[in-house]
């Protein structure tokens, strides 16, 4: 079957909750993918940063295959020999004390919300059912009913009510707004260190640090969603390390699954994680031995191959090269590490059109927020491959 036949099948039999670019992929290795016609593309989306280690990293695939041949699933009704070592590794690299494993990012966010609320009731004596969590406008934390309840994007919410109460939305990168939103029922502040889906919005230096200090002062949890920014994407292992802070709850996902399977985690201190007791939260697949084995290899690759350092170095180079294109269509180029947003000028037309042209040039990239082209290749990309891409991006943006 060729491209159009596959697309016709999907149009017919798959729900239309996405609007994919017209390419049908059949193979991937490292930063490269191949379509059903045999054409090769450089992947500059990395499945929204779930492929920081590249497609089918040999060490991750080996861990997956070895574990597949031993044990895949136990449920948490029993112990398995993979959960402990993986949680220990996660605690070591984050400086946290305990991990709770889930599958998707949204489940991780839901878990953190449940944790913060119950922590508030049990440790801060918030009146039952009165807990409030502060979040930011233009956020993206996932697609469950509770999470979209505090989205500021009408498309994510339209027709899906009624919504979950208990959230206060304030502007992003606005410390005074945070300060005035806090009251005696506030149990946490949930924030992305860089807003990814929101258009690669980088807050002012000091924002994350000041937000954490306010949380400390008012005894509320500082909850960081590093599902997209974490694990090397922004040039540090975690984006919060740019500001010398430590979150009370850290949510990881995407690249934690090594580009193979869904793995998410919430990490915190024993005091915070004690909100969970046997039976009050769980997931059939959360912490399964296959996920833990893959997750352990996924983290090991990021650390052993120094992917955060690569991201910092190559990201700075890539950004400079994009700036050097000097495109009359571009309003701003922003980002950290290999997490770069190119915002187009208002009269340039929608970013999607440019992504379609990039596709023809052999580059997979995705628009976000109408006007922004996101460039977030796997962190294993080579400098020569960035040069290859810049040549083509320049053609499209000239
Ligand atoms: C992708 C993402 C999520 C949701 O993760 P899923 O695995 O798609 O549920 C949550 N937060 C951020 C910041 C994300 O980028």
Summarize the structure in words.
This protein is an alpha/beta fold. The protein has two domains: 3-56 and 306-397, Alpha-Beta Complex (Aspartate Aminotransferase, domain 1), CATH 3.90.1150; 59-304, Type I PLP-dependent aspartate aminotransferase-like (Major domain) (Aspartate Aminotransferase, domain 2, 3-Layer(aba) Sandwich). Helix content is 37%, strand content 17%. It is built from 14 helices and 15 strands. The strands form three sheets. It has a seven-stranded mixed sheet with strand order 4-10-9-8-7-5-6, sandwiched between helices. α3 packs antiparallel against α11 (289-304) and α12 (307-324) packs parallel to α14 (383-397). The chain is globular and about 60 Å long. The structure holds pyridoxal-5'-phosphate.
What's the layout of helices and strands?
Blueprint: H1 3-13, E1 25-29, E2 32-35, E3 40-43, H2 46-49, H3 58-68, H4 83-94, E4 98-102, H5 105-123, E5 132-136, H6 145-149, H7 154-157, E6 167-170, H8 175-181, E7 186-191, H9 207-217, E8 221-225, E9 249-252, E10 264-268, H10 270-273, H11 289-304, H12 307-324, E11 330-336, E12 339-344, H13 351-361, E13 363-364, E14 366-368, E15 372-375, H14 383-397
Parallel strand pairs: 3-13, 5-6, 5-7, 7-8, 8-9
Antiparallel strand pairs: 1-2, 2-3, 4-10, 9-10, 11-12, 12-15, 14-15
Helix pairs in contact: 3-11, 4-11, 12-14, 13-14
The protein binds pyridoxal-5'-phosphate (PLP).
